[in-house]
Batch of 3 targets.
Target 1
Amino acid sequence: MGACFGALLPQSCAPLWEIRGVLPKRLILIRHGESEGNVNRQIYETVPDNAVHLSKLGWDQGQRAGQVLFEIVGREPATWQDLFLCVRVFFFRILLQIYSRILAKQVLDASLRRRARSASTKVAFIASPYVRARETLNAIKKGGDFNMQFWHEDPRIREQDFGNFQDTAKLMSEFKERKGFGRFYYRHPEGGEAPSDVYDRVSGFIDSLYRSFVDHPADNYVIVTHGVTMRVFLMRWLKQSVDDFNNSENPDNCDFVVLERCLAGRKYKLKLAQVVKPLTDPPTVLSAMPLRSSGGQSRVIRDDPPPSQ
């Protein structure tokens, strides 16, 4: 009898119960909007990759992405409850009466308190600290009129490093060499990374993401990041192969990838790959994007919100 009830209790009791009880309904990955570097690669010769701003088109793309994001998440009830969670709560209430009364009650009460605190949290945001990603997040906030109740930046989801100031001609030569070596394993010299290096830091990010789910529950987690980082995240999360990565391409600026949680359990499925296009603005032409030098104001971020508490 005791062994039977023990099998129904979560292993390690609190951690597994807490994680399963607060997994978001969706994980939404969004690539940053069009940047100065997307228009003119030579800007990387004088401006650090982390300080490259959005173009006007990129800002408009971000606002449009905010509108699309609101269409996905904005009309739902404030808290998403799945059938599996309700069944677990029911069984836990039975177990409170017949097995491990005190311990089980502590676990249940802690989980329900977190749910109650998160009742008004529909969307949590995490962004790369690079200027173009942060500006995209701010444009999304403005376009979707989100209150940004919880957000933070995480350096582990930054862009793949290609070195410091980048010589354009040399970088193009490296891209050609990469084709023969293998895209996933090719490491750019002089301080650069391979996607396999990005995989390692994204794996650490995913581990801590589960802790964020527990500490800051929300129905939707939105991650604003970069093309290679998005592909590596999907590779890691969906357990894809190296060949899957090598056969994939970066999404366009401000494109979405939506992972939706299955009704029961911890698995997610690829629900939607959303292409976001601005309503009116034409593509930026090279002549409209002059080169600039790095300066003390280069990391001033447009419409930056205050840090969440």
Target 2
Amino acid sequence: SKKIHDVIHKTELTHLDLVPFEKVNYENEVLFNNLTSNKRVLKTAIDEAKLEYDYVIIDCPPFLHGTTINSLIASDYLIMPVKSSKFSLEAAHKMMDFVKEIRESENKKLRVDGLLLTMYESNTKAAFQTKKELFKSYPNLMFKTSIPKNTSIAESTFYNKPALLFNKNASASKAYFKLVDEIIEKHETSNLMKLSGFEHSDFLDEEARNGQTSSISLN
């Protein structure tokens, strides 16, 4: 079997490397899930190289089987894209429950970094209702940035280029740049809070659920 360094590919971007993953459908995922008894295969591989990078980003398929479970066990944070529909809302709630299970059984460090509205059309009723429901359920987990629906995203795939390189001035590209800034700022703030004695809390913490705050002793 290959080591992760054997499959890391350099890109035209100086600070971006890729580990390509074969196209996968639901049937492949089920087969992978049945064949892979070790749920920490991906974590073991990433641990070999993670100190060489600031961020390791894993793009997961939209179903809860082998690769997604491996990814959640290997991750510190989860960014959950949500489209404007009832089905996406239901999927988001199920994923929240699933993350709780993963935290309790496999990876206690896993945190939801945020819920990200994607393919967002602000002038539609579906978008308004989705955003309203998400803010009601997870007010502290919503990213301020949303990714608007934009043709440049779909067009970029035909040129085998990231949307941000295909058209950096497109509305969706600008939104992704804004999202990156928001994530970095959020993590820097979180690190400062930890240094000050604050504990990280999210929707899974009972104190946060009950609206309680932790007291801090300054010595």
Target 3
Amino acid sequence: MYLISHTTGVRCYSMFIRTLGNFTKGIISRRTIRAEIMAALILTALITAFIVNINYYVKTNSYIKEKVIQYNQEIIKQAGQKLDYILSQVETAKVQLIAASVTSNLFRSYRSMSPADKIKTVKSTEDLLKYTRRSFPIISDIYMIGYDGTIYSTSPNTNKEKLGRKPWIRSMMNLSYNQLIIPTHIIDYENITYPNNSSMQVVSVLQKVRGTNGEKNTGIIQIDIKYSEVEKVAKSVKVGEGGFLFIADDNNMLIYFPDQKYLGKSLETVNYKGYNSQNTNHFSNMDSYSQMLAFNYNITNNGWRVVGIIPSRDLFWEIKEVNNIWILVTVIAIIFSLILSYFISKGMTRQFNRLIKGMKRAGEGQLDILVPEGGNSEMQFLSKSYNVMIDRIDTLMKDIIKKEKEKTQLELKALQAQINPHFVYNTLNTIKWMALMEKSDNIANAIVSLVKILEYSSKNCDRTVPVREELDFIRNYIYIQKLRYGNEIGVHYEIDSDMYNYCILKFILQPVIENSIIHGFQGSNHAGIISIRGRKYDSTIIFEIEDNGIGMDMPRKEKFTGLGINNIDTRIKLNFGLHYGIKISSVPGEGTLVVITLPILTGQEEYNV
């Protein structure tokens, strides 16, 4: 059981270490400075804790095991010494009785005595036996059996005839050995009724008596030891709930056993609490079998031995408790190291993470946000240098934007100067032919649209205009284009009503529509339709110009994003930032979609275009 608990503890600890290793491996795989610092702290704490705890575990277990074994060996030894003391008392009584029998005639001339002498001899002998019994409380009764058939007893209730027929009496008389121990047995040769019909159990010690001057054996002394005295010694030893103690003689006959049905029987017949003669027949000071330990103490004078059988789960429960505490302390220490390493690494990398976030914002174009200067001296120097660099880059970017705006204004004016004469020429040419062919109101409408276009184009472009004005300009522009291309072009407007009062940059929509008319429907065999949609989305307004023309592949798309489209995208980004601008998607044979994203302007903002 100790082995099982030990193995389980180590297995649990190993599983925890593997889990922690996988966690640490996951941290390292992210390859961040914080992760590497945390992993280094965890590994340092883990290795230190492992070395310290393993050393503590081995030494503590060894110490506890040694002390537990010593303690149990000592209590078994004490029980053996108590039993040895009982037997020494029996030996003393036996020596006294042998001396008395040798110096008297009670075994030699009893039959030739007169009746009066016989009575006197019996009385004096039994008085001696009774005196001896009173001197040694552990003795139940004493008997002296002569080879001539005479029997003396301390008890007046002895059935002497029945005692004389006992097999051990005949064995002692007929065999050569001088002493014999009869294992625990019931006294059936005393005519005594015990309470509750119980019976008296004793252990009998027999000794032959020789006459003087080398005479042959004349009698036998039998001393019955109270079994209760032996039992008292055995029960004084606490060997745990699952353990037990037994006493056996040199022939493996049981003197004491917890289950009384085995008393007086051979040890080989025992099958009790997992113990039997198959798993152990001989005991050393400590033998292990079936997760149990045996402690043995030999009484050298007569071959008796005291054996304590103790399950290892009862013997080493303290080790199990220490193991559990060891595992708990280790887990707590590792968890504490995890928490501590987390906060230490967080503190060490806080300023570094701020610097990384600042770099990310700078990469997104937010050059006006500086990083707080904190942390250790190295990080303060790095943060300060970064802020100086960002401030310098921001200044340079503003200079570049200012120059680009000036350049864009010049390009826009040049574009207007290019577009307007060419457009006016084509328009007037159209009106001329219409005037020659028919007299129609279309001529007047065309002239009105042309005038409005020229008015809108000639306005100061260094400001934003309402969406309503830009759409009016688009309607006049498309009306003129329809005069040129006929009714082959249809235009659909889907503009949210709340968008008309927002402001946008001038000439944002016209270049896109012009590209759709000129390039989108060129070579198309069906009527062209242009859809102009406008809607509000969060804090932006979105225009979508979609046609059902011939679409574009990549080379045509690059041509499509020429001067006019690129000019619009550049103006938007310079004024509002990189989050805004133009996106183009086109499928050859299906059409083109241009999406323009702008911020919401109410007319109070000032932007230079």
